[in-house]
Amino acid sequence: MLLGLSLSISDGAAQVAVPRHLSVPRGKQIWSRNKRFVADVFLDQGVTRIGKVDWQGNIGRTTPLWSMEGTFSSGWLSDDGAHLVTALESPISLPEGYNKDHVLLSFFSRGQMIRRIMLNELIRDFSKLQRDGATYRWAKYVELNGCGYLAVETIEDKKLLLDVATGETVRFGVEKAYQVQGWSSYQDGSRCYQFQFPREYSLRENLTPRGTPAGWLWLKGAEDKDWLIDASVEDMADYPREFARMDFEEFALDRTRAMYSADGCDSSTYVSGVARKQKFVNRNRLDVIEFFLVVAHETSEEDGKTTIEKETVGPVYAVSIGAPQAPARILFLRPANGAEKEFSQINPPLRTIVDTVVRFPVVP
Known about the structure:
Layout: E1 27-31, E2 37-42, E3 47-56, E4 59-69, E5 74-77, E6 83-87, E7 93-95, E8 103-109, E9 112-118, H1 119-122, E10 130-132, E11 135-137, E12 139-144, E13 149-154, E14 159-163, E15 171-172, E16 184-188, E17 193-197, E18 202-207, E19 213-220, E20 229-235, H2 248-259, E21 262-263, E22 267-281, E23 287-300, E24 306-320, E25 329-335, H3 340-346, H4 350-356, E26 358-359, E27 362-363
């Protein structure tokens, strides 16, 4: 049985805006990334109940699935609603009176414990534990990544990927993928994809304060002064529920329009239309849409007149890197802002880069 603890929602636990009718008295909720399942943690009753949420617009009705005794401080719920991972304390810190067999993470399948991971399984040199007030930090981060696996990096720089269904370590593999010989590779373990780029290119990655990939990248050639290619990831799971009604193409176009939209005091930039688009499958069997957009630049003059100038920008490539049946996750590759004219003149190998994008399979 899990111990009941005071409410403490860490930044590692899944959190969403909760409709009032789904609120839990004297407790909290842990949501799956796809927002189809929820764990209600009743602190006053010492019980956790998992339910399936049926949505009608923004109204959700919960059907009970399973329950277990005990509550916890942090948790992560799988997208099938069957598996729950819990941490009694903060997911990255230990209490002052810890011991080497302290339980860090517990893995449950429909209420049955299937694995516990203890401190001495993940940490070898205990002198490296970082003092933080009255606690000791053992991990840099613990998070449920975009592929539904628990990603862990310890203070010893050990990176792990744990299957929430078994508690066992897995890894990503890209065997038999289309690759360009002699090119460099970039890998994002949080979003579960990889692509290649010319070896002579420079790549800059935007990182979160915890050191994990933030989802933004920039590329340029050896002779380029400014960044030439912009890469970013958009995940439908990070957006409000109303986005769930969109399919891959609708979500891709919506996010592409947002990339070229901006408002100022006396001007506005927006997408006024799609000049052309093309759907295809890349050489690693991922769905891709190529967009060319008509972008309008609207300016209000002092005499009250409005001028509108239009230009065609692109190509913008939207590559589907989400798992089947999961919320859409898209890797966008496009000319960097302000580089559209240079882009067309330099003609970088963006189309070939798109062909190298691959979604990770999992290897035990």
